[in-house]
């Protein structure tokens, strides 16, 4: 009975967060992006210039990838909670739980933490490199914080309140590195094939320094994965597995 009440409480929290992320995506897409795009097009037209190539849209930015990941994670949490609330202990329910826990460990936490840490680290050096002041006119402060600040506290609270079975380190790390490599290849394709450099620093890196950048990036992501793993272990150290938690992904 207690476990069912806990699942019901988590379901409500997950639904609330899912709604929050959907609302954030809606406001970003249909208010911020539309206004910002119109502003930039008019600015280029007044200057007699052709607007820059917009291929890839906002999917060029890791922040938007992360918004999609966080939205998907809490959607999957809601589906899993509903399956568990029904009392199902079927093999399918086990797979739902295992995938939820893998996605948190391998994607949602490391990518979310990367976005938050890198955004505010760069902001501390020079905000113009990551969020120019001109964007303040289009971005409500709350939207900026939902995209770049509250992601991490929400994930930490999730890990503290909900017991997750960690996947094997191999499965988790492979997932993290796959997502990281996919985004890097996307950014490089945009740069070399479309001449759209999301991060201009990559344009000037070559040879040894490019290899060094890839190595450091991979180890940084790996470090974030391990941090998430240790936090989860710390939060639930000494607690037995919940009766609704199942086998991990290996």
Walk me through what this model shows:
It is a single chain. This protein has helices at residues 2-46, 62-85, 91-126, 141-148, 151-161, 169-194, 201-204, 207-235. 26% of the residues are buried. Helices cover 73% and strands 0% of the residues. The two termini are 30 Å apart. The longest helix is centred in the N-terminal third of the chain and has 45 residues, at 2-46. Mean pLDDT is 84; it is low at 47-52 and 243-248. The chain has eight helices and no strands. By secondary structure, it is mostly helical.
Topology, please?
Elements lengths: L1 H45 L15 H24 L5 H36 L14 H8 L2 H11 L7 H26 L6 H4 L2 H29 L15
* Poorly predicted ranges: 47-52, 243-248
Question: What is the end-to-end distance?
Answer: 30 Å
What's the rounded overall pLDDT mean? Answer: 84
- What is the H/E order? HHHHHHHH
Q: What best-fitting shape do the alpha-carbon axes yield?
A: globular
Helicity range: over 70%
- Briefly note the structural class of the backbone: mainly alpha
C-alpha Rg (nearest Å) = 20 Å
